[in-house]
């Protein structure tokens, strides 16, 4: 087992309506969700910033509402899906994130590309442009296309100042899983579930993340993380968020790493109690 400085475990996103009554108490004001979340986790991935340009007042509120929570921020989709951003777009995005960047609780920017983004000279040039645009900021890169599973790409990622995201996802055609390599200054892991049936065939986007990892799968993932550590700070985010499944699995993985966890009764009761026997 490679030495781990620390393994930090949390969720991708924290503000989901279907977590109310399962994790968040009924009647809890949505502005207090993040404070409640911090009682259980020390890291969170901010995801709303992918769907719309974030604003600094929201980011400042995240900092002010918490004491120890660390934040990763998913980059606005203009940088990863549209890929036609201007310098002013970059400046606006960075300005909106200033409260987090200045808080000393910022983990990294997450640049998550779609599966249609494949390995090519042109796309590597685009990744290089992103690296230059966000030079000096910690940043991680998630690619979905299996075409990136090559040694030269891993070397290029590190040389451009990115850490590579290791992902767990269904083993379906064309998608990269893993690659379970420690590339960059930190280890960053995203666990999307293994719902192969709905990965390409879902009416609503949440359906592909409707998956609960079994205790055996959590043990497998935990052992993978142990072998990955390489003396680096390690961040693990569960994205199988439907009905709080990410919460339960994140707490389960915390137990695997020897942490004492407290499980909300409603969350524990929603799923099979055999998970915790």
Notes on the protein architecture:
The structure is a single chain. The chain has 277 residues and is α/β, with parallel strands linked by helices. The protein has a single domain (6-276), classed as TIM Barrel (Alpha-Beta Barrel). 34% of the residues lie in helices and 16% in strands. It is built from 12 helices and 8 strands. Strands 1-2-3-4-5-6-7-8 form an 8-stranded parallel beta barrel. α8 links the parallel β5 (139-142) and β6. α10 (215-228) crosses α11. The radius of gyration is 18 Å and the shape is globular. The two termini are 27 Å apart. The relative contact order is 0.16. The mean pLDDT is 93.
Keywords:
277 residues; alpha/beta; TIM Barrel; eight-stranded parallel barrel; 12 helices; 34% helix; 16% strand; globular
SS element count, helices: 12
Spatial strand arrangement across the major sheet = 1-2-3-4-5-6-7-8
Report the principal-axis shape. Answer: globular
What is the average of the pLDDT values?
93
Approximate helicity band: 25-40%
Order of helices and strands: EHEHHEHHHEHEHEEHHEHH
Which class best fits the helix and strand makeup? alpha/beta
Our estimate of the beta-strand percent is 15-25%
Distance between the termini: 27 Å
Indicate how many domains the architecture comprises: 1
Going by CATH, the homologous superfamily would be: Protein of unknown function UPF0759
Give the CATH level 1 class: Alpha Beta
Q: Which regions are unreliable across 5 or more consecutive residues at pLDDT < 50?
A: none
What can be said about the biggest beta sheet?
8 strands, parallel, barrel
CATH architectural group: Alpha-Beta Barrel
User: The CATH topology is what?
Assistant: TIM Barrel
The total strand number stands at: 8
Our Rg estimate from Cα atoms comes to: 18 Å
